[in-house]
Amino acid sequence: MTDAVTFRGVSRHFGSVKAVDAVDLSIRDGEFFAMLGPSGSGKTTCLRLIAGFEQPDAGHIAIFGEAAEGVPPYRRNVNTVFQSYALFPHMNVRDNVAFGLRVRGIGRAARHRAAEEALAQVELAGFGGRRAGELSGGQRQRVALARALINKPRVVLLDEPLGALDLKLREQMQEELRSLQRTLGLTFVFVTHDQDEALSMADRIAVFAEGRIRQVGSAEDIYRRPSSRFVADFVGSSNVLPADLAGAGPAGRWASLRPEDVLLDPAGREATVTARAFHGRVTKLTLDFGGQALIALVPAREAVPEPGATARISWDPARVHVMEPGA
Ligand code: ATP
After folding, report:
1. Cβ(268)–Cβ(298) under 8 Å?
2. For residue 107, what are the β-bridge partners?
3. Domain of 256: which CATH number?
C-alpha cells in the first residue's frame, strides 16, 4: 500500500536554525500519527511542509506517492485543522464550515449541502444555524474539524488542536478525535508536546529533537524500548542506569527502567530511601542504589520504608531495555 506521506532527506533551515534537518519519514495510509517533541524541535515545520505552507531546502516529499514539489496547498489532498478559536464567532456554524468554499466561489446551495454533510461527519447535524460563539469548547473543536473535512482531504493535519482546552475536556476530546479518525478512515497527523496525549492516541509516534527524528514506533515501542536517553527521559520519566548495574547488559551501555517496574521485594538488593512522596494512587520513592539515583513508583496499598531506611528492590530483567550504543 502506498504511504500517505513520505519524507526523504527533507531539510528546512531558517538562517542558522535547522528547524527540520535531513528527516526521513513514512506515514501510513489510515494511521493516527503523532509528532511529539519539545518546543522548537521542528514538529510544526514538518506539518507545514506536508501542508505545502513551507518548501524544503533539500530532500523530497511525496503525498500518496506523488511528488509534492510545486503542488500548492489547496491541491495536496491534505487539510489543516486550526485551533477552534480560529472560528468566526459572529458567523453561524454552517457559514464557518463553508467559509473556504465561499472564498473559492462555490454557490450557496452547494456550499450549504457540503457543510451539512461535514457537520454530520463530526456528529453535529442540525447545529448549522447556531452561532459559533454559542458552542461549547468541544463542539467548537468539532466544527474546526468539519471545516477541514469539507475539502474531502485524505490526510488531516492537526497542530496542538487541544492545546487551548482544560484538562477534562481535553481528555474527552482525545477520545472523540480518536474515534472520529477511526470512523472516517482518514490519516491524521497530530502535533503535540504532551507525551501522555501522544501515547494514548497515536498508532505510531515520531519523537523529535532539534529538527531530527530520534525514534519512530508504537506507543509501546517508544515507552518500553526507548532508543536513547533523550527518548527515555522525554516520554514519561525513566530511570537511566548503566546496563551492567541493571543486570541486563554490557558495561559502557545505558539501560532504561521505568519507575513502575522497580518493585519492593524482601529478597531483593539493598538501596537507601532518600525521599518519599505520596501521590494518591502511588508512592514515589527516591532511592540510592549503589550511588545511582533510582525512582520507584509503589502502589499506594503497599507499605513503604521511611526516608533513611533500607529498601530491598528487584525488577524483572525483561523490563530493562538496553539502549543503542552511544545513546
Ligand atoms: P512548538 O511546539 O513550540 O510549536 P515545534 O517543535 O513545532 O515547536 P517549529 O515551530 O517547527 O518547532 O520550529 C523549529 C525551529 O524553527 C524553532 O527554532 C523556530 O524558532 C524556527 N522557525 C520556525 N519557523 C520559522 C520561520 N518562519 N522563521 C525563522 N525561524 C523559524
Report:
1. no
2. none
3. 2.40.50.140
pLDDT in tens, 50-73: 999 999 999 999 999 999 999 999
Whole-prediction pTM: 0.87
pLDDT digits (tens, 9 = 90+) for 218-228: 999 999 999 99
Confidence bin at 34 (pLDDT 50/70/90): very high
Amino acid letter, 245: L
Q: Residue 309's domain spans which residues?
A: 237-322
CA of 198 to the centre of ligand 1 (A): 20
Alpha carbon of 210 to ligand 1 centroid (Å): 10
DSSP 8-state secondary structure symbol assigned to residue 57: S
State whether the beta carbon of 23 lies less than 6 angstroms from ligand 1: no
CATH number at residue 159: 3.40.50.300
Q: Which residue among 7, 45, 46 has the greatest number of ligand 1 atoms within 8 angstroms of its CB, and so is best to mutate?
A: 45
88 and 65 in one domain? yes
Helices then strands, counting H and E runs in the chain, come out as: 8, 17
**What distance in angstroms lies between residue 37's CA and the mean position of ligand 1's atoms?**
12
Q: Residue 233 Cα, ligand 1 centroid: separation in angstroms?
A: 22
Q: How far apart are the first and last CA of the chain?
A: 33
Distance (Å, rounded) from C-alpha 256 to C-alpha 229? 8
Q: Say yes or no: 271 and 209 in one domain.
A: no
In this structure, are residues 325 and 253 in contact, taking their beta carbons and an 8 Å threshold? yes
Classify residue 327: in a domain, yes or no. no
Per-residue pLDDT of 276-306, as tens digits, reads 999 889 999 999 998 999 999 999 889 899 9
- One domain, residues 95 and 69: yes
Pocket perturbation via mutation, ligand 1, pick of 17, 35, 48, 50 by most ligand atoms within 8 A of CB: 17
